[in-house]
Each structure stands twice: as structure tokens, then as C-alpha cells.
């Protein structure tokens, strides 16, 4: 994931999660919601947003790479 200079809000990430939820497993959606409980850091919000951004349009290889990053993030 390239570095983005734009900070994403809690609401941005929730909106992106809602958009991409049909393309994610229930476990992944649950993991994202858990990460968004409380007050995640700005760095965490940005990371979550970019893992979700255009997930539905990603190639199978890109999705696999994002899944690895999610495993690391949520593990």
C-alpha cells in the first residue's frame, strides 16, 4: 500500500467498511469493527482504510496480499 498523506476519519473507515463488507468474510468484517471500537490511532485508521480501499476491484493477487496484511494487523 502506498503512503497516503490524507488522514481518514473514523466515519470514513466505517463507510468504506460498509461498501466493502459484501466482498469480505464475516470474520473480516467483525475484525474491522473490533479495531474501530474505542479510539483507534490515526495511523490505524489510515491503515484500515487503505486495506479496504477498492478491495472489490483488486486482482486476486492483490487481495491475497491484503489478506496477509489483515492477518498481521488483526493477529
Question: What features would you describe in this structure?
Answer:
Helices cover 64% and strands 0% of the residues. It has helices at residues 10-20, 26-36, 42-52, 60-74. Helix 1 (10-20) packs antiparallel against helix 2 (26-36) and helix 1 (10-20) packs parallel to helix 3 (42-52). The model has no long low-confidence stretch (mean pLDDT 93).
Q: What gross morphology would you assign?
A: globular
Low-confidence blocks of residues:
none
Count the DSSP helices: 4
Oligomeric state: single chain
Q: Give, in order, the helices and strands.
A: HHHH
How much is the radius of gyration in Å?
A: 11 Å
Largest β-sheet summary:
none
Helix content: 55-70%
Strand content: under 5%
| Tally of strands | 0
* First and last CA, distance: 19 Å
Structural class label: mainly alpha
Average per-residue pLDDT, rounded, comes to 93
Keywords summarizing the entry:
about 80 residues, 4 helices, about 65% helix, mainly alpha
Q: What's the gist of this structure?
A:
This protein is an all-alpha fold and about 80 residues long.
How would you summarize the topology of this molecule?
Blueprint: H1 10-20, H2 26-36, H3 42-52, H4 60-74
Helix pairs in contact: 1-2, 1-3
